[in-house]
Design a protein that fits this description.
487 residues, 4-stranded parallel sheet, alpha/beta, Rossmann fold
Length: 487
């Protein structure tokens, strides 16, 4: 039976869904103001693994993954400029143009990584009414206050009735000590109170009417409102990166308890971080590598392109609760490991059965299931597949035999665990990654030829290449450094 590590209880627990045969799962998705990087890939792949395994176990899963497109501010959850509004201002675009552009690119990257789409993908900006109603519930219960048109959670008052900090293991005294005093926080009763609704400054371009002011919801509010809207006041699993545990998920618990009288989530799950030289990879540290840069090999820390399946395999090689330190060498090793698995699978599909088996396949299915039931232990599943690859290679090389029954079982287990659950494309589909690089290389080659033609003032050739690519659906933008293109 499946055991998962519940961050709330800090131990493995047998998973028992709220409703028999049905699972409600909510995962914090991206803030879409820039391209997805490796740090975004890890939660996507982690909870894709959980989603796939739950469905394999026979559950009907409603998987909700949100898009944050308003309320996530530059400095912290309560202060600064909205990240999407800032991008829109700098690029002279409508905020929703920024949202749509980067959401489309995020979806493209997820498809390349073979991440299944969620059941529902709500946008924060599309659920302002629900968020206002949720804030009003907290106001009605007396756990929030209005100050200068903004609404704040009264954390001190809340903490007298509910255990604030139970998810992250912090107590209010520690939080008081650690909380920074930021400009613009004079309107709060306490520096650790967090915004449920923010009054918009005159220059703020994303705002909506509310009972308190023309403004926008606090970052934490979207998940409380959308989670309960689509999954009910109590649901099974809430997931996200470990960096969201505090303050984001802690604030979600406080919001739900304040509004509803109880926590909405039964099992909290958090994946650990991708690091570079021991430091978390992320936009805030300016040390991230986008997925597109990985696929194209265009970054100073990369010596070559890496296919989407190599990235997926690299992440699955480590348990989701352990840190993964990025390096080019580690990705090269993952690429070689994936290559060995791919070769073994393709050999498995070619070998012929004999009357009896001289190789031992053992109880491979049971061992793989045992590993997955042990808190989604994907590296152990991979090790079991590598073990069985030795038997496959022995038969393929003519040094052993395998019976029809064993061959069918081996093929079925590999398809189930390597492809359906781990989501690895070992049947040649991963060649689309190599094909994508060739395709990108061909487009870059044509556009470099056009650039050379422009330098030589060969306008006819330059226009011919641009017009032909435009007719095929490419968007081409000349830049001071050369060009950019998209399809």
């Amino acid at each position: 039976m499946l055991q998962i590590y519940n961050t709330l209880s800090r131990q493995k627990e047998y998973f028992r869904p709220l409703h028999e045969g049905h699972v409600g799962m909510y995962v914090c998705g991206p803030t879409v103001y820039g391209d997805a990087h490796l740090g975004h890939a890890r939660p996507a792949i982690t909870f894709d693994l959980l989603y796939r395994y739950l469905m394999h176990l026979g559950y009907k899963v409603r998987y909700v993954r949100n898009i944050t497109d308003v309320g996530h501010l530059e400095h912290d959850a309560d202060e600064g400029e909205d990240k999407i509004a800032k991008k829109a201002r700098l690029e002279q675009l409508e905020p929703m143009e920024v949202v749509q552009y980067f959401t489309n690119r995020y979806h493209r990257d997820m498809e390349l990584l073979n991440v299944l789409p969620p059941s529902i993908e709500p946008h924060a900006s599309g659920h302002i009414i629900e968020q206002i109603a949720f804030v009003q519930k907290i106001m009605d219960k007396g756990y929030a206050y209005v100050s200068n048109g903004s609404v704040y959670m009264d954390v001190e008052k809340y903490a007298k009735d509910y255990p604030y900090g139970k998810l992250s293991g912090r107590n209010l005294e520690d939080i008081v000590t650690e909380t920074r005093e930021l400009d613009g926080q004079q309107e709060k009763k306490h520096s650790f109170d967090f915004a449920l609704w923010k009054k918009a400054a005159p220059e703020h371009i994303m705002h909506w009417p509310s009972p308190w002011s023309e403004g926008f919801p606090g970052w934490h509010m979207e998940c409380s409102a959308m989670g309960t809207k689509y999954l009910g006041e109590e649901f099974d699993i809430h997931g996200g990166g470990m960096d969201l545990m505090f303050p984001h998920h802690e604030a979600e618990i406080a919001q739900s308890c304040a509004a509803l009288g109880h926590d909405s989530v039964r099992y909290w799950m958090h994946n650990n971080m991708i690091t570079i030289a021991g430091k978390k990879m992320g936009k805030s540290y300016n040390n991230f590598i986008t997925l597109e840069q990985f696929f194209a090999g265009k970054h100073e820390l990369l010596e070559q392109p890496f296919s989407p399946m190599t990235i997926r395999f690299f992440i699955l090689q480590a348990h989701y609760r352990s840190t993964v330190d990025f390096s080019n060498d580690a990705l090269v090793a993952a690429e070689k490991g994936l290559g060995r698995l791919t070769e073994a699978y393709q050999r498995l599909m070619k070998i012929k059965a004999s009357a009896s088996s001289s190789v031992e396949i053992g109880n491979l299915r049971e061992r793989c299931q045992e590993a997955m039931d042990d808190d989604l232990n994907s590296p152990i599943v991979i090790s079991h597949l590598f073990d069985s690859a030795r038997a496959i290679n022995t038969v393929f090389d003519g040094k052993g035999t395998i019976s029809e029954t064993d061959l069918e079982e081996l093929r079925a287990v590999w398809k189930t665990y390597a492809m359906d659950i781990l989501g690895l494309q070992l049947d040649g589909a991963q060649d689309a990654g190599a094909g994508m690089e060739a395709y990108k290389g061909a487009v870059d080659l044509l556009l470099n030829m056009r650039l050379e033609a422009k330098r030589n003032k060969d306008w006819g050739t330059s226009d011919k290449i641009r017009n032909a690519l435009t007719e095929l659906g490419f968007t081409i933008k000349d830049t001071k450094d050369g060009f950019e293109w998209s399809l």
